[in-house]
Structures are given as structure tokens and as C-alpha cells.
Amino acid sequence: YVSATDIDTIEVEFQNPLKPSSVKLGMSQEGRPGDFDVQVFEADGEGVLPVYGVNFLESGNLLEVKTAQQRSGQRYRIQIQDIASAASVKLKDPISKTFKAIRMRAIQQAQSQNGADLNGDGKVDFIDFTIFSSVYGSVFGGGDAGLNQGLSPIPYAPDSTVPHTSTPAGGSVQ
Fold it and tell me: In terms of pTM, does the model score above 0.90?
């Protein structure tokens, strides 16, 4: 099974564990493609996608292949040769599988759909709540029916603390 998991990462899962000594592992030197048993080509042409590293993940049957940045949605063909299973059974022919690179637009849309992240830092946290309350804090329940008389919105102060009180803001509970 072959799948692009990031813009520069491919995972290849084998049915059986591999013999570690039969796979050229490691990372290439700073930004230069390495000499690995794994090659990646554009599926519809002869363009080569440089391979920068090959490593095992978690188990002996899952390889992580680091490449140059893949083009969004492009189809590629990965070719793997000269490897053997843990039982020392060597491949007769190179493995050649196609896969599709991740569509970056889909990832960017998923990240931007988190509307609760008001300050855009990638997480929903207290600062987002503070921003929300300072903007929308003066209206409760969709209208101002006198429920918030005398209350003012919480000012935006990311390093401030929230005081703890034993009664709710505004006096009493009804």
C-alpha cells in the first residue's frame, strides 16, 4: 500500500516485514537527493521527484520516504528495488505503484474551517474565548432583554487573569 501523507512524505506498507539490512536507510545530506533503493517519478511523464530519505516507521513493514515537495494532486509512481523480506526472500522484479499527492487546497480549507480560532494561531484557546467575549459579550441569547444591564464586555488582555468569584457576574442567580 502506498500513500502520500504530507507534501514531502510517502508511506509504503508491505504485507510482510522487511529485512532491515536489505534497505538503504537514512537521510541524504542537506538538500541533496540520496542514493536509495526507492525512486519516485511523475506517473504521466519521466520527471523525477528527488528522494531525500528512507526510514522505518513503528514496525518492520512500514517505510517512510521523504521527498522533494510534491505537486498538489499530481499522480506519481514509486519504484522500489533490491529489497528482501525478513525471511530473506528477495524481490524478483522492482515494485512499481502509483499514488496521488495530497491536494493542498483541501488541507488549507480544512484548517480555515475552524471558525473558533479567532486569532489564527491554529488552536482554540483562552485568547479566542477572550476575543469572542469582548466582541459578543454584550448580547446573550440572541437579544438584549435586560439580562446584561450594567455589564461590560471583557477587554482583550491576553496576559490577564480571570478573578474567581462565588456569585455570578451581575449579582444573583434567577
Answer: no
